[in-house]
Amino acid sequence: MAPFNLIIAQKASPGLIYPVLVASSIVNAADSIQPTAIVTYKDADLLDKKDEASAIGVQFDGEGMIYGLENVLYRILKSYSSALRSRAESTVEDEWIKFSTCRLSGSDFKATSAALEELNDHLTLRTFLVGYTLTIADIAVWGVLNGNGQAISAIKRNHLPNLVRWFKYIGSMERVTASVDSFKAEANTKKKAKSKET
Amino acid sequence: TNTIVSHLSTLIPLFVKTTYTDIESAEIHQWLTLTSTTPIPEETIARLNGNLKFRTTILGEKLSIADVAVYARVKGQVASWSDEQKTGEKGYRHIVRWVDFIQNTPDLGLQIPTEEKVAVDPSKVLVYLEPEEPVK
Fold first, then answer.
1. Which residue of B has its CA nearest to A113?
2. Which residues pair with A42 in a beta bridge?
3. Which has fewest Cβ within 10 Å: A124, A127, A146, B3?
């Protein structure tokens, strides 16, 4: 499979970045021979000032740069659907990608609460959002939730047990958290370097 | 029978490479003991359901031989439950979710034939519970 470059605007909202970071580390883990995703950080809000969606970008061998959370996810899915979907030909996961970007990234408290309750109901008899394995559905929702402070504090209230259980479980997987942790570490070193300068 | 269960655990590759803390080992032992009578008493069923409310596996997030052994011991009872007992107001919904996870997760590689699985339809929930009052 063709390797790809992932470029991340470090100062952008984490919810726009985490889903792609996690997806790329899952893809890397699936191909143990050579890492497929090469991550580069840029110390900026946007990669292209004229493009509001450019918090994140992906470039595959011999192709142009693609910007934006959903576009980037779908481009990665196109090449790695068997590692990221319940079945290679499944499309159920796409609904959850939409759910995460449309319903979980806003700042309206009521809307976020309603979306979280829906998730809690959906997870009553389910361990993963789709099927019996980790898919891009879990990755997208978990990643966007992590960037939404309102959602995080709602989860910490423990009043939605199925959601709390799922959130802890996805967050316990090393292949999910490793990329997010190294992103945070990278951001911290830059912060420290800056505070020494001043 | 718990000696046999301990021996069986060496046959599942995942368990050979997983290490458990003393507390986790004690918890595994506790659940093996609690579920060693047939049928499993109502009190233990209720306790198991409570344990699985915030936990994906019996230990929390880590799979163990307790998941496999308790699944094998409880599945007959779960299969006999009515919809009300499964997902009614007071149903043991968390056990049903966990049973379906254990019998299907590729991580354990149990390869249970479909006809031996407990029938679970994840979209069939009799009562969705209201959000609980936050614990202060």
1. B131
2. A9
3. B3
Q: Cβ(A65)–Cβ(A4) under 8 Å?
A: no
A158 at interface of B, judged by CB pairs closer than 8 A:
yes
In this structure, of A41-50, A115-124, B73-82, the range with the lowest mean pLDDT score is: A41-50
What is the phi-psi region of residue B55: left when phi exceeds 0, alpha when psi lies from -120 to 50, beta otherwise? Answer: beta
Residue ranges of domains in chain A, CATH in brackets: 4-197 (1.20.1050.130)
DSSP letter at A9 equals E
ipTM for this prediction: 0.94
pLDDT, tens only, A20-67: 999 998 998 886 667 788 899 999 999 999 998 899 999 998 999 999
Q: Is A126 on the interface with B (CB under 8 A)?
A: yes
Report how far residue A167's alpha carbon sits from residue B55's, in angstroms, rounded to the nearest whole number.
Answer: 10
Predicted local confidence at residue A30, as pLDDT? 80
Give the nearest partner residue to B131 out of A124, A125, A160, using CB atoms.
A160
Domains of chain B (ranges; CATH) run 2-116 (1.20.1050.10)
Give CA–CA dist A162/B9, Å, rounded.
Answer: 29
pLDDT tens, residue by residue, A76-97: 999 999 999 999 999 999 999 9
B101·A168 Cβ contact <8 A: no
Chain B hits for A134, CB-CB cut-off 8 Å, are: none
Using the Cβ of B53 and the Cβ atoms of chain A, whether some distance falls under 8 Å is answered with yes
The answer, yes or no, to whether residue B136 has pLDDT greater than 60, is no
Minimum distance, in Å, between the CA of residue A6 and any CA atom of chain B: 30
| pTM (2 d.p.) | 0.94
**In this structure, what token pair is assigned to residue B100?**
């379906």
Answer whether A121 touches B (CB < 8 Å): yes
Q: Does B51 touch chain A (CB under 8 A)?
A: no
